[in-house]
Amino acid sequence: MSLDQAAIDRLAAAPVAPGRLLIEGQWLPGEAGENPVLSPIDGRQLTTLAAASPADVARACASARAAFEDGRWSRLAPSARKAVLHRLADLIDRNAAELAVLGVRDNGTEISMALKAEPGSAAATFRYYAEALDKVYGEIAPTAPNILALVHKEPVGVVGAIVPWNFPLMIGAWKIAPALAMGNSVVLKPAETASLTLLKLAELALEAGVPPGVFNVVTGPGRVTGEALALSPDVDVLVFTGSGATGRRLLQYSAQSNLKRCYLELGGKSPNIVFADAPDLQAAAKTAATAIFRNAGQVCVAGSRLLVQAEVHDEFVSILAETTKKMTVGNPLSLATQVGAVNSLPQLEGNLGFVADAASEGGQVVTGGARVLQETGGWYMDPTVVTGVRPEHRLYREEVFGPVLAVTPFKDEEEALRLANASDFGLASGVWTANLSRAHRMIRGIRAGVVHVNTYGGADGTVPLAGTKQSGNGADKSLYALEKYCDLKTAWIQL
Ligand code: NAD
User: Fold this and answer.
1) d(Cα 495, Cα 488) in Å, to the nearest integer?
2) What is the pLDDT of residues 472-482, one digit of tens each?
3) Cα separation of 84 and 210, whole Å?
4) CA 91–ligand 1 middle distance (angstroms)
């Protein structure tokens, strides 16, 4: 959708109501009080957010469990669930401007990107799974003639969903939509610094006709609210997007509680590989810049390791640096902004720490490297390109999740592949070459959930996003995601 600046500014001037918990269709305060919500745009308080205590979380999970057991959603005809999810998608579209602006004020994503990536993709996701839900069939197994064996696909029960602060609506929808489509109940725990649009989504879900108790939202700190959700014996499946450190904890909580299945979509350090025979170096450099710097680098699939073939390295870095210097960093509510705010002050400080470490390890900061626009009170960083980064450097190995690009030269295809795979992560990647055979060899060789060729980003909901290695397990998006939200049941019948 498009929106003019005056309309954005009008929406951005509206006060933001305090966030409450949604349990059994009721908006409630949190037993653990409330926390301030600071806007990354200017560091000022935007509103407050209810902090759910473990007892609040237990109530939300019990409500989801009761709703699942009594069948108010789980045993509805698929056509009825489909109608509700379509209504929800329509409501998201109708409220898209408000959702996009609220999200930007909360988490700092550029408005031009938020308009597309947040309500736009959330509505598309609800429509996709609304359409998919009555096309999921069970099976008859090829058994002996005196047996009839059926494989049923059943909802798992209660899904706990814990999501991060980048693209909360999009990533939230990737989990909530297929979970609800298959008839499950959901308890959602949004990130502390990006809960507001998901609370609005929950309001729209009630309006669309999702019955009370089927979709509950608990807000609050990860180590309290998130931990209680992950430990809950009422949660059958936990779906998570966030950092590897939290992912590890969730596996421990699962082991300590009811062995709930955990699906983890984690971080990345994705290689974007430019061969000298790339069809258009200018286009590749522009895309390489947006692949890392959009949303101030806070994108899980960001192309954060740029591998460039030695013979074009200097030329490519010079085009890239020029492109980067021209990018407009600033207030994410401005349509002219290309690089918005960093989500929080600790995140910004962490980004700067990576640059300092890279410089001390021998990397060269070609452009950027500093905090900017400090006078606004907000959290902004100049997009940063560091060359001479080697596999043993911290900047090569660890995810920054900020606007910092590590550049490394390579000699030939074999070295490119070795460097690409020299990472604990395996989320995304990109290959720029005019040689079709080389492109296919690289697609086969790179260990990652996505390989982009002569482009970077933009993979839509028809395809899975499924990390390998320490980038996670299971898939978001596409029909493959439905597998997380179903149990298989065999009926073995003697004829
Ligand atoms: P995070 O792990 O700090 O937080 C994610 C969520 O987990 C938040 O809701 C947080 O409150 C909660 N949490 C934190 N500690 C918890 C605990 N002990 N128990 C339960 N819940 C807890 O991650 P983040 O900083 O919000 O997000 C950035 C990370 O997410 C990056 O690593 C990024 O790559 C990753 N990410 C991955 C994908 C993907 O699809 N693979 C997409 C987006 C972001």
Assistant:
1) 22
2) 999 999 999 99
3) 7
4) 27
Catalytic residue, candidates 110, 192, 227, 265: 265
pLDDT exceeds cutoff 80 at 85: yes
> pLDDT value at position 58?
98
Mean pLDDT over residues 251-255, rounded?
A: 98
What is the β-pairing status of strands 468-469 and 147-155?
unpaired
For the CA of 265, the nearest atom of ligand 1: 41
Listed residue (241, 257, 255) closest to 58, CA to CA: 257
Catalytic residue among 110, 118, 262, 300: 300
Atom of ligand 1 nearest to the CA of 174: 40
Residues 6 or more apart whose Cβ sits within 8 Å of residue 328: 336, 337, 338, 339
Q: Distance from the CA of 40 to the center of ligand 1, in angstroms?
A: 18
Reply yes or no on whether 300 is catalytic. yes
Query: pLDDT (tens digit, 9 = 90+) per residue, 398-414?
Result: 999 999 999 999 999 99
Taking the CA atoms of 303, 309, 312 and 317 in sequence, report the sign of the dihedral they define.
positive
> Could you report the per-residue pLDDT of 106-115, keeping only the tens digit for each?
999 999 999 9
Q: What pLDDT does 2 receive?
A: 78
> Ligand 1: which of 196, 235, 243, 484 to mutate, judged by most atoms within 8 Å of the beta carbon?
243
What structural domains and CATH numbers belong to the chain? 5-266+472-494 (3.40.605.10), 271-460 (3.40.309.10)
Phi, psi for 37 (deg, rounded to 5) = -110, 115
Amino acid (one-letter) located at 86: H
For residue 195, how far is its CA from the centre of ligand 1 (angstroms)? 13
Tell me which residues have their CB closer than 6 angstroms to ligand 1.
162-166, 171, 189, 191-192, 222-223, 226-227, 230, 241-243, 246, 249, 265-268, 300, 399, 401, 427, 465, 467, 471-472, 476
pLDDT at 475: 97
Tell me the per-residue pLDDT of 117-156, one tens digit each, with 9 for 90 and over: 999 999 999 999 999 999 999 999 999 999 999 999 999 9
pLDDT given at position 323: 97
